[in-house]
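Hey team,

Sharing the Branched-chain amino acid ABC transporter permease run so nobody has to redo it. Sequence (286 residues) first:
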Amino acid sequence: MLFLELVVQGLIQGSTYAIIAVGLTLVYGLLRVLHVAHAGLFTLGAYLGVLVTNHTGSLGIGVTVAATGAALAGILIYRLVYEPILDRPPYVALIASIGLYMGMEELFRLVFGPFGMSFVTPPLQDVVQVAGIYLRTCQIATVVINLVLLGILAWVAQGTKVGTGWRATVDDPKMAACFGIDPIRVRYLVFGMGSALAAVAGVLVALLSNLVEPTMGAVPSYKSLAIIVLGGLGNVGGTLIASLVLGVVEAFGTIYLGSLLDRDAIAFAFLIIVLMIRPTGLFTSR
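Structure output:
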């Protein structure tokens, strides 16, 4: 029973890592930019979700506002920060992204205060039994929402004209433009979608811990950057698998190695060991 419970807890955590990391993968696949400021959008989504939910009493409205607000912020970041420097070496965009995230952290601290924010009445906290395992309804909702979002993303990518244009732009931007696909619109779409996914992840993490603070995006974002390397840069499928594997490793490591390392240290130790063996990731050729 302990084995099954740890697997379930790991998949819950891993599914949240997945929707954060998928947004990063989308941006990297399109622009070859490591979008560190993604962590700021994750935190922005959490704050918006908690504020709106507390004000309206509706978690659904909170999630919708958070996703919409973060999507608009992501598009604005692309337009003002990344677009003017796309012709520069990749490290220029990386430095800009790191600086932007640090600025967003300080802005959150100034606007919302340094001590964190919580739901006045935390939703979805009832406990239910599933296959002999006790879970809070927010944990079940987290997995369901993440699966639905990933399913919608897969459908958009594979089953719509928008997705076809997006994949064509990733493969060959110049050829895609010759066939009438507007790469600027595609980039706006990808930034909007990735930012919305980060925002939803932020709300779900806030729901699980009932706490939002200015620096909450740092550790999930760093893990996500490692995950997209572990899964193979630009490889969405590999990113999803790597996210779930990391979640399960964390869950088991917390039980069996918790006296030596904390949860985050276990995760980073695992990622470092794997990347030392396979520096190009598990799902790309050497």
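The chain has a mean pLDDT of 85.

Ping me if you want the raw files.
A.
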